[in-house]
Specification:
With 457 residues, the chain is an alpha/beta fold. Helices cover 44% and strands 14% of the residues. The chain contains 17 helices and 14 strands. It has a six-stranded parallel β-sheet, with helices on both faces. The protein starts with a strand and ends with a strand.
């Protein structure tokens, strides 16, 4: 069997590497029109950081795993074609800021139809709105020259930072297809691929629309839990309750469970906000404005939490951070990844710079160029002259030296073991620490002399 994956990003690269590792008799080609990205996949420094991914790629690359820009050749050779291209939120026209931009999906469908030399199984791996398969099937049918195509939905449920483990031992693999003889046969073909290492009872098969919708709903429910506990964190701060104690107490209820009840400065990443806004737009499009408003409120609470955290820093520093140095530890949206999309740090840095603070950022994996691009990209209202007030440090001690306050925004493990006595000595007094991830021992920090506070405490 030969598999082609169009799109060599966070989804396509790791997923195909795992298939190649677990099914050595399957030839896997990952194709992308970006030669720089493909060159990185073929180098010793992969284009994404993910624990364990280097080893998987090294074991398979050049054997049954290949990264190439030869899209047309890969399409013609493949039995199964995964589509893992980007589906960003539209920034223009109808649905701007909420609807998914499907231009890349449509382009891929047209390319497949033009290049296919026989029947193919097309697998939606990108996160897409429900009913996107109809669009793909329509384009294929109109341009197929008589070839038969089956379109399946196989959404990814990877968490960045644990993607390799998620692929090795998934909670479930979801495959949706049409309830026709040819559709069922296509579903079984893909089931057989995953069955090389995934127990059959963890491979769920549904109709196309259930599968497409399940990805959006899964991310919406996870984000909802985070926004829910973050809303309660504000109440905890107002009443003297401890959000971690509250989360532990309610998480012991088997109907609720403990996962995704960790209060923080807010969620980020490429999926949660995008998928919720997409879901809200879909609900509105289908005449369900009340449902749409419900899900949009999850995003509003998340944005509010980010601004609330920055506002707390300003209020604590005597209602002004102008010309004060604030060290921001962490810029990636979570630990063990270099992904900064929708990171809470972006909003925190912008708010502090807007208050005329001097902001110095340190992150162990995110480059200075990426940090500056994210902070100053897009709208720069209120950030005039802020370029010189944003700097990037090489380590946490450089970032905190001479700072009035430290804000922990990403839960990197190294931040737990910093020499805070040394950091305290080098800071302006009074020295403040704001733990946006609740990973530090506030009592110990206060014993050192810090004015330390966390989320919901």
């Amino acid at each position: 069997m030969k598999i082609c994956c169009i799109g060599a990003g966070y989804v396509g690269g790791p997923t195909m590497a795992m298939i190649a590792l677990k099914a050595p008799k399957i030839e896997v080609r990952v194709v992308d029109m970006n030669p720089t990205r493909i060159a990185a996949w073929n180098s010793d420094v992969l284009p994404i950081y993910e624990p364990g991914l280097d080893e998987v790629v090294r074991q398979t690359r050049g054997k049954n795993l290949h990264f190439t820009t030869e899209v047309h050749e890969a399409i013609r050779a493949a039995d199964i074609i995964f589509v893992a291209v980007n589906t960003p939120t539209k920034t223009y026209g109808v649905g701007a800021g909420r609807a998914a931009d499907l231009r890349f999906i449509e382009s891929v469908a047209r390319t497949i139809a033009e290049q296919a030399n026989g029947p193919k199984i097309i697998v939606e791996k990108s996160t897409i709105p429900v009913k996107t398969a109809e669009t793909i099937k329509d384009i294929l049918a109109a341009n197929s020259r008589g070839f038969k195509f089956e379109v399946l939905s196989n959404p990814e449920f990877l968490a960045e930072g644990t993607a390799v483990a998620d692929l090795q031992m998934p909670d479930r693999v979801l495959i949706g297809g049409e309830r026709t003889p040819s559709g069922e046969a296509a579903v079984q073909t893909l089931v057989d691929v995953y069955a090389h290492w995934v127990p059959r009872d963890r491979i769920i098969t549904t109709n196309l629309w259930s599968s497409e919708l399940s990805k959006l709903v899964a991310n919406a429910f996870l984000a909802q839990r985070i926004s829910s506990i973050n809303s309660i964190s504000a109440l905890c701060e107002a009443t003297g309750a401890d959000v971690d104690e509250v989360a532990n107490a309610i998480g012991k209820d088997s109907r609720i469970g403990p996962k995704f009840l960790k209060a923080s400065v807010g969620f980020g990443g490429s999926c949660f906000q995008k998928d919720i806004l997409n879901l809200a737009y879909l609900c509105e499009s289908f005449g369900l404005p009340e449902v749409s408003a419900y899900w949009e409120s999850v995003v509003r609470i998340n944005d509010w939490q980010k601004h609330r955290f920055a506002g707390k820093i300003v209020r604590s520093l005597f209602n002004s951070v102008a010309d004060k140095k604030i060290a921001v530890l962490g810029f990636a949206f979570k630990k063990d990844t270099d992904d900064t999309r929708e990171s809470a740090a972006i909003a925190v840095c912008r708010d502090l710079l807007g208050e005329q603070a001097r902001v110095i950022v340190y992150d162990p994996k995110v480059s200075a160029e990426e940090i500056r691009r994210d902070v100053f990209g897009g709208a720069r209202e209120g950030l005039a002259g802020a370029d010189a007030r944003l700097t990037v440090a090489k380590n946490a001690y450089e970032a905190t030296d001479g700072a009035h306050a430290v804000a922990v925004v990403t839960e990197w493990d190294e931040f737990r073991t910093l020499d805070f006595a040394k950091i305290f000595e080098g800071m302006q007094k009074p020295a403040f620490i704001f733990d946006g991830r609740n990973i530090l021992d506030l009592a110990k920090l206060r014993a050192l002399g810090f004015r330390a506070s966390g989320i919901g405490k």
